Amino acid sequence: MRDRKVTSLDVAALAGVSQSAVSRVFTPGASVSEKMAKKVRDAANSLGYRPNVLARSLITGQSKIIGLVVAYLDNQFYPDALEKLSNALQAKGYHILVFMASGTGPEVDRVIDELLDYQVDGIIAASVGLSDELAQRCDAAGIPVVLFNRGQTDARLSQVTSDNRAGARAVAEHLIAGGHERIAHISGWSGSLTGQDRAEGFVSALRDAGREPVAVIDGMYRREAASQAVRDLMAMPEPPDAIFVGNDHMAFAVLDTLRFDLGLSVPNDVSVVGYDDVPLAAWKAFDLTTVRQPSNKMVEAAVNLLMNQIEDPAELAQKLTIEGPLILRGSTRPVEDAR
Amino acid sequence: MRDRKVTSLDVAALAGVSQSAVSRVFTPGASVSEKMAKKVRDAANSLGYRPNVLARSLITGQSKIIGLVVAYLDNQFYPDALEKLSNALQAKGYHILVFMASGTGPEVDRVIDELLDYQVDGIIAASVGLSDELAQRCDAAGIPVVLFNRGQTDARLSQVTSDNRAGARAVAEHLIAGGHERIAHISGWSGSLTGQDRAEGFVSALRDAGREPVAVIDGMYRREAASQAVRDLMAMPEPPDAIFVGNDHMAFAVLDTLRFDLGLSVPNDVSVVGYDDVPLAAWKAFDLTTVRQPSNKMVEAAVNLLMNQIEDPAELAQKLTIEGPLILRGSTRPVEDAR
DNA sequence: CATCATTTTGCATAGGTGTGCAAAACGAAC
DNA sequence: GTTCGTTTTGCACACCTATGCAAAATGATG
Q1: Which residue has its C-alpha nearest to nucleotide D19's C1'?
Q2: Is the pLDDT at A3 greater than 60, yes or no?
Q3: Distance in Å, alpha carbon of A322 to nearest chain B alpha carbon
Q4: Can you tell me the distance from the alpha carbon of A152 to that of A193, in angstroms, rounded to the nearest whole number?
Q5: Which CATH number fits domain A164-293+326-338: 1.20.1340.10, 3.90.79.10, 3.40.50.2300, 3.40.525.10?
């Protein structure tokens, strides 16, 4: 015998009270007597009643759903962030609805449509190029947006990033201090602000020390592109002795290519530095020197930002920058070894 | 000027038709004339109208939301599956609502409550020990459940797994053919059917060849546990010359420990085999021999199973097993080298 | 033009919940 | 017991959409 859906009316009937009484018992802060609350709770438990979030959303205008837009999950930074975001939001009574948007342009537009269809209370966009039109539409619909680990110029969008310029600068300084002579950069996608910032911070720090990168190649955040880039670099007449890679995900491909395709030793022949400090970077197989993006803090900031904007729509968008340290590991020469 | 939510009534007013007409235009297969459809679509576009999925769900009983329950995302198998599941479901007009359930018992119960609150149309449970109570409650609520990469005895739950016994058996046979003398197993969590099946398939294949494993240790699906296990194994008076690890995630920790903590060579000193064939396994840094779990096929099967049960609630639960090949890589001695 | 079959449209209601408002219950003070 | 202030409760409606039903429109046929 398959149960029909049990509603607040069923509970009300069993408890011998009105439907609104049931509603109030399940609404924190509503006016209910202890006696009534007990009656209702007993009836609800015996029927297995739980309020229907979707019906509730109709009337409160709060779906308790946060849309998460993400492109790929093969870069460990994102599943890691997703897990933390989901846990943080779960604790606040929200849940994450996942939207994959690998492409750009029309595909992203379709995703936005679907986001609006589900009446999400807010949007977290990670790792995806969002058109300005997105900002426009979400703003018009009154849905707060937080860009996670992705910058954007539009002032209506909040964002949380690490201090990419400072991080890249620290990398440059460390490589110089390590006595490296020919320093190259395989950058993150040059179409992304994150990629640009890291590249610019890195190059400007080199210049401040009177140096120039021997090469800057766009790695597109893709393993194969990074792998090809490092092959090209090492085929130069005077190959680099240090490479800063735009994120860990690409850096792992660079390490593999250097060691196993080109037969080189890291850091003896080349030092390699990444960005993100995903858990993998600490594994001995990579032992990658990298800039930590403190995902805990970034998640916390993103969630707070979103919650504030949901509670008070007048709240204006903010652009937060979180500092992260350079983590020294075995993929770069220790500074003592400087010649 | 912040827009109020635009409803089908607004569209109807602008187009000079009834609300039901608008609804019909957005309901595939409803009876509408071409003229009317055009009028409505124009009005809808100019207002930026899109049907409210949540309000629709009230009346159709279909939320177009699938709940995904998952414990951790640090084992790459799961983000990979999540991405594929999300894409497959997105193509069918569904989206994934994420529920993290690291713990067991009461925490899982809370998750079930929340799943029901959101009126999900179906549930995919990956990597979590679900009590029989789950089956009970979801069955009562009429919500189909598919266990992904996780077995369960309850006949009411559908499940999709790879052929864990056959896969483990193939590993055993390959290790024997490779001339290994002392074969050990670091198993998946012995509380999971998946872990048990792999262990049993492996051990029974050894016995069929007149062999016994030198040791079987529970690795709990955790890196640290696996790392400790391999240290214990290699500290034995006669350490193993081959280790089958219950999944790739643990196998990576085993490789790191063997190479960098114990200074051993793989596969010269010890052969290592994993299970899953996550993308990482093919990276040169690991080059791990492993049993492939064809996540594409598993996802496809899981989605089909779920869709069938959603469309026809009378459809009975199925337990599907997908075959996966042993992928030979550099972490095991080639069979030609057998002495 | 009349008739009828068919398609299209509007009306009205349902789906499950929260909330403003007024009525009812309660409790205190005289 | 009466009065008044406070808390609790129920009534009725709103939120946004889909759909059964009957009325209207359309088109084909005689």
Answers
A1: B20
A2: no
A3: 23
A4: 7
A5: 3.40.50.2300
